Amino acid sequence: MSLNLLKLFEKACFIRAFEYEIARQCDAGEVPGLAHLSTGTEIADAALADALNPTIDRVTGSHRSHGLALAMGADPIKVAKEILGRVGGLSDGMAGTQHLIAPESGFLTSNGIVGAQVPLAAGAALTAKTMKTGGVGVAVFGDGAANQGAVLEAMNLAVALALPMVFVLYNNGVAQTTSAAFAGGSGSFIQRAASFGLNAFVADGCDIRLCCDALERATASARAFKPAFIEVGVGRDDGHYYGEQQTSTDAENGGGAIRAIRAQLLADGVDALACEQAKNGAENLAHTAIAVALAAPKVGRVELDRWISITGAGV
Ligand SMILES: Cc1ncc(C[n+]2csc(CCOP(=O)(O)OP(=O)(O)O)c2C)c(N)n1
Ligand SMILES: [Mg+2]
Fold first, then answer.
1. Of 124, 131, 165, 227, which has the fewest beta carbons less than 10 angstroms from its beta carbon?
2. CATH number of the structural domain spanning residue 65
């Protein structure tokens, strides 16, 4: 497997810059509701997207999925418009930060109900198998979601039906304020997955090479109808949602994933200037996307009524 580490670094920087610009817009009162930032999962998001083929693979994500949608290639202006409640967003600005939908980029949906995205990915995997597309269904979920009944049922179903599916656990060690160690009865997610019959892998979300390698092996297993599970250790750099007083995660780890990939690039002989240029370019793109989105009109009664007439909702 040949990796373009500089491109992955650029993508990770783009996600981080996008999220911090969203944070700025939260402060300015431009984001309706809470924003759960992807700061800490940038490397995992970029590595996962690298292992997938957006034309045939389908990913679902959690309430914390801005980074994953962007990594898969969702239009950043449309993502920003959706988060900012602007006309022209992925769902015309009416679904918001926790319900991003970009199937044309392989990003089936994110979901605000903890764990609910996982059986949806099993459905995508069943479709891929039935239609013989060669694709995989991938569910990304947190350590809190890992204890939800629907997630455990999906694991069993994936093995029973030999689905081309990958369960990707982003373990940041905490669900809102409940530690993974407290909530996980067995103590080991890997052992639990293996006992379901899943092909189980582990990866460090700060080590881009190991992360890409493990994700590649997990998706290859799923493509061969041996459903897989991978636990990726990630950070939660800015609290459960932006603006929350951060009490339950290691703030010293902030930006650790980005620092680690930069150090890897320098060790590979890429010069610091090239890294700086990649980072600056990514930041400019992120800032421009959000500025364009901000200029769009806010969703109002007219758009809502139009959707009600199309969907029949509220009738
Ligand atoms: C079914 C359900 N229960 C509770 C919540 C409230 N809630 C939102 S996010 C969250 C924590 C999820 O933790 P985890 O799965 O570890 O994801 P993380 O936030 O750490 O990325 C909770 C309890 C919810 N949205 N849905
Ligand atoms: Mg968590």
1. 131
2. 3.40.50.970
